[in-house]
């Protein structure tokens, strides 16, 4: 065996993998009540453990070709000790700070005197002796007892090839997993996260405070400034009166005496251009079109961004999406005050459901932080549920959601997001109807989502909670698929990528209505709070739909942004091209200044964690 393989390099691989696995298991045991969704994350992290241990063994083996062979035992034992010690250090950091050790921590190597208590916790931990010193000592003992002859070059090369064959598939599986979330310590490894966090520090852009933006933003905000508004410019006290003095037709239609259950349904990429009720082909969404005639239907509703995470941030938090790094991934540890949290404080039970993986785009961590008490994903679905594309089918999602809603205590706020109307656009065969124009696979899933949404609403009508429920149905974003008619100018180009449906239905909608004024996703959270009627504090940038004022905003970082209002429309493309529609030059200049103020202001507030103070800070103020 020693002639063809170098066994000690495999022992190094095995020790690194097993010790990492033990630390991962300890972390799993320390998590809150176990859900089915944790186990796939645990398995994914285990694959990363094998990959990381393989990398350490591979590096050690390659170094053996550089150093004299008399140093070979010491090289492997040193690599073992350093890697196991790094695992222990990372675990101690995880216990104290909730994440793996980030690369940015190297900045503090010159300030070690400030980490005395942390170092003492590391030293007195029994894991240091059981999982670092003991395995290293045993590894050293194997060398003393084993064959003292140095390994041949052939044996070392064959062994390195074997390590690649063992750990390579694990790394391929883990890195190829679409919904992996490296912010989740249960998924990633210390070594992997350390390197990954380094890539987020390369060429950092630090935005200067846009002081010229605040007067324009303050002028645009609703509500009264709070004591801490100077530090947190969006913080406002709002005194909603949309239902106390219902003056508009929509207010008279939606307001009632009891607090309603609220449902938010995001339809994946369900853009306006393909919806019959909004001028699209009549054969694509007939079921949705029929429901549009029964509820409150918006003809000029806009997505505030171009990705699912933008739509969720806008709808749940009432804030325009960032013109920069993604909020859910890069800023999820910051402090927010969003609709789920406010409703939870008001006695609502809050829930979020997806048929895909909650870890995609770091949704699970962010949504839990902003107030969702129950988060359900594909790992909570029953076995045998129909799978399409990225997750379970829309029908499986709606059937699952209906069962979950039956178990919630009223009043409740629950939100779900579909997944079928997304690449690779897989739909059941009965919805395959090639049109001869455009992307027919996308058209198939549009038909399917339309039919399944109607199925959900028909079943919901039979539920006892229907009569006290308002359901807001809208898309997360528009879609990148080629349209049947290509845009002829910048206005049509941006509108195609921004216009989505909004349908308000449920047992509390008194009469069908069509709304033609501009609105967007950031207006949904203020609308819900307006319906509830009680004063509240929040950093919302939108306005209540009950006021029936016309305003909408969208942006796609680095490409375009647009502003719609009753005074006209402004479309701005990166590089300077602009189109003002129905606006005088002075009004267009004011709209551009306001739009840029919002883009720069939100970007800076997120960078500085100035959206909302931490709970203790807000109480102190």
Keywords:
alpha/beta, nine-stranded mixed beta sheet, 621 residues, elongated, 20 helices
* Rg, Cα atoms, Å: 28 Å
Instruction: Please report the total strand number as a whole number.
Output: 18
Residue-averaged pLDDT: 89
Strand content: 5-15%
| SSE class | alpha/beta
Query: What percentage of residues falls in helices of 4 or more residues?
Result: 40-55%
| Overall geometric form | elongated
Largest sheet: 9 strands, mixed
How many DSSP H or I helices?
Answer: 20
What is the CA-CA span between the terminal residues?
Answer: 71 Å
Low-confidence stretches are none
Explain the overall architecture:
Helix 3 packs antiparallel against helix 5 and helix 10 crosses helix 16. The strands form four sheets. Strands 3, 4, 5, 6, 9, 10, 11, 12 and 13 form a nine-stranded mixed sheet that branches. Strands 15-16-17-18 form a four-stranded antiparallel sheet, sandwiched between helices. A hairpin with a 2-residue loop joins strand 16 and strand 17. 43% of the residues lie in helices and 13% in strands. It has 20 helices and 18 strands. It starts with 6 loop residues before the first helix and ends with a helix. With 621 residues, it is an alpha/beta fold.
């Amino acid at each position: 065996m020693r002639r063809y393989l170098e066994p000690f390099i495999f022992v190094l691989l095995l020790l690194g993998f097993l010790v990492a696995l033990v630390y991962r298991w300890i972390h799993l045991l320390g998590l809150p009540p176990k859900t089915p969704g944790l186990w796939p994350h645990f398995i994914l992290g285990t694959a990363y453990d094998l990959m990381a241990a393989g990398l350490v063994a591979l590096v050690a083996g390659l170094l053996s070709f550089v150093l004299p062979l008399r140093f070979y035992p010491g090289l492997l034992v040193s690599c073992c000790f350093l890697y196991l010690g790094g695992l222990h250090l990372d675990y101690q950091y995880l216990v104290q700070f909730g994440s793996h050790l980030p690369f940015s921590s190297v900045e503090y190597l010159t300030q070690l005197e400030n980490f005395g208590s942390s170092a003492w916790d590391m030293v007195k931990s029994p894991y240091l002796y059981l999982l670092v010193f003991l395995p290293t000592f045993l590894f050293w003992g194997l060398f003393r007892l084993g064959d003292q002859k140095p390994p041949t070059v052939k044996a070392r090369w064959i062994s390195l090839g074997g390590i690649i064959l063992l750990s390579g598939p694990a790394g391929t599986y883990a890195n190829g997993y679409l919904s992996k979330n490296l912010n989740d310590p249960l998924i990633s490894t210390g070594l992997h996260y350390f390197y990954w966090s380094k890539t987020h520090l390369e060429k950092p852009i630090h935005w200067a405070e846009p002081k010229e933006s605040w007067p324009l933003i303050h002028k645009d905000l609703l509500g009264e400034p709070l004591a801490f508004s100077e530090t947190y410019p969006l913080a406002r006290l709002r005194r909603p009166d949309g239902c106390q003095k219902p003056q508009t037709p929509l207010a008279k239609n939606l307001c009632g005496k009891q607090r309603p259950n609220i449902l938010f349904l995001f339809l994946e990429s369900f853009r306006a251009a393909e919806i019959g009720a909004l001028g699209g082909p009549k054969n694509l969404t007939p079921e949705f079109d029929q429901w549009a005639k029964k509820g409150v239907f918006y003809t000029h509703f806009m997505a505030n961004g171009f990705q699912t995470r933008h739509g969720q941030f806008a709808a749940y938090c009432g804030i325009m999406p960032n013109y920069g790094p993604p909020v859910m991934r890069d800023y999820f540890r910051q402090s927010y005050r969003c609709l789920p949290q406010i409703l939870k404080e008001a006695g609502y039970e809050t829930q979020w459901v997806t048929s895909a993986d909650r870890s995609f785009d770091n949704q699970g961590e962010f949504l839990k932080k902003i107030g969702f008490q129950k988060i359900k994903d594909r790992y909570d679905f029953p076995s045998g549920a129909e799978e399409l594309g990225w997750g379970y089918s829309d029908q499986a999602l709606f059937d699952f959601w209906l069962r979950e809603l039956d178990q919630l205590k009223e009043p409740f706020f629950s939100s779900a997001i579909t997944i079928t109307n997304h690449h690779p656009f897989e739909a059941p065969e009965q919805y395959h109807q090639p049109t001869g124009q455009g992307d027919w696979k996308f058209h198939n899933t549009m038909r399917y989502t339309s039919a399944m949404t109607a199925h959900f609403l028909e079943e919901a009508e039979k539920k006892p909670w229907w009569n006290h429920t308002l359901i807001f149905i809208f898309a997360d974003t528009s879609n990148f698929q080629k349209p049947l008619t290509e845009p002829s100018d910048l206005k049509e180009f941006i509108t195609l990528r921004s216009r989505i449906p909004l349908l308000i239905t449920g047992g509390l909608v008194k009469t069908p209505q069509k709304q033609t004024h501009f609105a967007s996703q950031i207006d949904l959270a203020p609308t819900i709070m307006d319906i509830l009627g009680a004063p509240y504090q929040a950093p919302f940038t939108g306005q209540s739909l009950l006021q029936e004022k016309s305003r909408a905003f969208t942006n796609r970082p680095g490409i375009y942004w647009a502003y719609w209002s009753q005074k006209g429309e402004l479309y701005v493309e990166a590089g300077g091209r602009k189109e003002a529609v129905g606006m005088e030059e002075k009004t267009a200049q004011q709209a551009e200044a306001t739009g840029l103020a919002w883009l720069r202001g939100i970007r800076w507030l997120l960078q500085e964690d100035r959206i909302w103070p931490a709970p203790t800070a807000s109480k102190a103020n």
